[in-house]
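User: Let's play a game. I give you a shape written as tokens, and you guess the letters that built it. Ready? Here's round one.
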């Protein structure tokens, strides 16, 4: 089973380049059995809208994961309750809208997707390690894909090792800088600290540099604008043995 994971999509530039380059990526790395993207920044760099959601599904994506910015567009929150192909981090407290994990059937094979969020340098929500344990106890498939939306490299690697042998892959998102540590851990779990960002690479993690300078120079708020220069698709391709759930190969994707 071949999986494509697209790193955090940044606004309209990210959506546009993904639409343009996805056929090329499919031709080079595919065909893919399942396609996932982190879409928490897909609408103007902050959050998601129903229109943008439909645009991404129309490209052929099967599942959208997210993170802390999924809550930014309040009008979108009711959609989280009705659309099971979109996940928010599972370790937000009970009572939050949406779901944090779901199971798809792909060519007769059950594929579970789990979305978790880190706590180091981020909102102190429920423990992602304990939440992962809780979810894994209930899943009835060995093919399990985890998007861990976290800031700290140490927390991401710790979860990867903690879940090694119990999930197919742990894919880090959120920091928007693609790391060069893709690997298959000893227990057969594919891992990368960050899958990268689909958006403008000439800015500051996807935002126009001039709009960011003001905040660093003055310490006062400024309106960030999405970067529209040097646009790139970044992500990960993983091959998984559907019988055991173990990963067979993992490789980074980076396309202009």
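Assistant: Ready! My guess for every position:
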């Amino acid at each position: 089973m071949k999986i494509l994971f697209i790193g955090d999509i940044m606004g309209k530039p990210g959506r546009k380049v993904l639409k343009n380059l996805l056929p090329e990526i499919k031709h080079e790395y595919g065909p893919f059995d399942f396609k996932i993207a982190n879409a928490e920044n897909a609408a103007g760099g902050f959050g998601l809208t129903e229109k943008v959601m439909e645009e991404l599904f129309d490209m052929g994506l099967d599942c959208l994961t997210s993170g802390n910015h999924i809550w930014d567009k309040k009008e979108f929150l009711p959609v989280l309750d009705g659309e099971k192909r979109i996940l928010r981090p599972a370790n937000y407290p009970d009572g939050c809208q949406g779901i944090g994990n779901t199971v798809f059937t792909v060519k007769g094979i059950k594929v579970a997707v789990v979305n978790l969020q880190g706590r180091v340098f981020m909102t102190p929500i429920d423990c992602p390690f304990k939440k992962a344990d809780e979810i894994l106890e209930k899943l009835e498939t060995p093919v399990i894909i985890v998007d861990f939306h976290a800031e700290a490299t140490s927390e991401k690697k710790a979860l990867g090792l903690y879940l090694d042998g119990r999930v197919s892959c742990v894919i880090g998102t959120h920091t928007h800088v693609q790391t060069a540590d893709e690997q298959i851990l000893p227990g057969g779990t594919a891992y990368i600290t960050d899958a990268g960002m689909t958006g403008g690479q000439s800015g500051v993690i996807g935002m126009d540099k001039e709009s960011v300078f003001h905040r660093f120079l003055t310490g006062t708020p400024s309106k960030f604008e999405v970067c529209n220069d040097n646009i790139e698709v970044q992500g990960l391709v993983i091959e998984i043995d559907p019988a055991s759930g173990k990963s067979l190969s993992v490789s980074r994707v980076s396309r202009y």
